[in-house]
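FYI - complex with zinc ion, inputs then prediction.
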Amino acid sequence: MRKFYKDIKVIKSCLICGAVFRPPRGDDNHHGFCIKHRSLYWRSWYEKYGKKLDRKKYKEAQDRAWKNWVEKHKERRRAQALASYHRRKKFKST
Ligand SMILES: [Zn+2]
């Protein structure tokens, strides 16, 4: 039988220790490392760059990107907001 794209499982081995891991489809945050070495990798990344990040500027850039997206996809945002409203209305107090 023909395999669908979503059915293809990715199996990778760690670049450092060779441990086999299965990242979810479309996930490219592993950089070829197993879960153990990935946390080490991200920690060193944070030590190197994350501490220097200007949080305020980063947040502003994120907000700008979001607003641009909303401007571009007004219909989709409308549908999203409506779905969110119906999903959450039962949790609303007062
Ligand atoms: Zn590893």
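The chain has two domains: 7-43, 52-91. Residues 14, 16-17, 19, 33-34, 36-37 surround zinc ion (CB under 6 Å).
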